[in-house]
Amino acid sequence: MVPGAASLARGGHLGGAVRCQSPPMASHPIRRRYLAEELVRLRRADEPPRYVASQRAGRIDPNPHQIDAVIFALQRIPQGGCILADEVGLGKTIEAGLVIAQRRAEGARRVLLVTPKPLLGQWRDELLTLFGIETVEIGPDTDLRVPGVFLVGRELAGSERGADRLLQAAPFDLCVIDEAHEIFAGLYKRYDRYGRWRQRGRQARMAARVKRALADTPVLLLTATPIQNSLTELWGLVQYVEPTGMLLGDLPTFRSLFCAGDDRRLREGQDDELRRRVASVCQRTLRRQAQAFMTRPFVERRARLFEYTMGPQEKALYDDVTRYLLEPELCAFRGGQRRLLLLGFHRRMASSLEALAASLETVAERLEGMLLPAVGRGPRRDAETLPLFGAPATQDDGGLRRFQADLEDDEEELALEEEDSGEGEDEDEGEGEEADEGEGEDEGAGEDGSGAREGRVLQRLDEPAEALPDTRIRRE
């Protein structure tokens, strides 16, 4: 988090570095009830039955801060969107669901929800259970021009092919982006220090593609941490919800006005000005503010660290699996996936033997499926999974596709960790020269062996391990 930005928050709360002042919440219960009723009344005059039906399907009793957030979002959406930045546990999913339900009641036909791939199922279930909203997960044959609420993983949305599909189907009536800070705040990395456009950084390219595809779509960003390492991350998020670009200016202007040193500190005397500007597009509630209105107070979180040493059999299994995945002639997966596979399998070993066994059984079935077509007895091939592995895929590889999806999420998390620690930064970032390298060259760098960084990871994993205190592959 940004240490110098703490002055933006009342009481010195670090998470309040982007504390956005919204109209004060009403203190009287009658006033709060009135606001709740006003929220229910917001609808097109000719469509009351649709809205009543959506509310009847809901099984929630919103808290006051959630009502405030929803009203704020509904007021901002016609102007381009907003950021809902409530702290963890305050119900941003509920707020987004209320906004979606209200927009649909007002006539919105197509809503897009971009979320991390592991959360697709959770969003689908909660929207259906809490609001009676059915969703469609975007696949190869999904028609995005028909009415509906569409779910898409952020990795697909940020890919070149996925962003092109969204661009062709745009504009949507609303787009909700969950966990927006993890990729989309990195938009600033697309620019050098002089504000010139660059073609570098995988995460920044994904953010730029999504922004381009949603240029004419109002966006609702959900994040509990709009600032993690740099004030410029806040600038990146605002670009999605403030189409004119006038609120914070371009990146060099923002840095000159608000950033000090390495962009991690707020320039002295600028906290009130930044708070005033961001307040028009960002709504944030802290736990201490909402505590008085919660029927069930928050439970204090206590983290405890336990050391664990593998027994002889566990150590032997760990070494055997690692040795197998490092085999030069491994047929099940292509070479560019080695780091990803090691990360996924080591996590499964740390989880349970059952999880590891299930993954190994899936790989065995995969290998059997590769052999059967060679003798003319195999099931038909599935073109959708063909690019994922170095051999033909079959229609029965659903379990393997889910495994591959999990591994891709692990790789995404690892890439984000490396980027946060500075490992993924461009070496010539400070030179001020425009780089125009083309996206394909950068993305394909890891295909042939991803250079020294991957080599260090593999070398590290190949060393004998005495314990497994952490399931993530980390840098020395």
- Class of the largest domain in CATH? Alpha Beta
The assigned CATH architecture of the largest domain is 3-Layer(aba) Sandwich
| Total domain units | 2
H-E string? HHHEHEHEEHHEHEHHEEHEHHHHHHH
Residues in β-strands, percent: 5-15%
Helix count, DSSP H or I runs of 4 or more residues: 18
The CATH homologous superfamily name of the largest domain equals: Tandem AAA-ATPase domain
Uncertain runs are 1-25, 46-57, 377-402, 409-476
CATH topology (fold) name of the largest domain: Rossmann fold
List keywords for this structure.
43% helix; disordered C terminus; 2 domains; alpha/beta; seven-stranded parallel beta sheet
Structure description:
The protein is an alpha/beta fold and 476 residues long. It has two domains: 3-293, Rossmann fold; 312-419 and 447-462, no CATH class. Helices cover 43% and strands 7% of the residues. Strand 7 and strand 8 form a beta hairpin. The protein is built from 18 helices and nine strands.
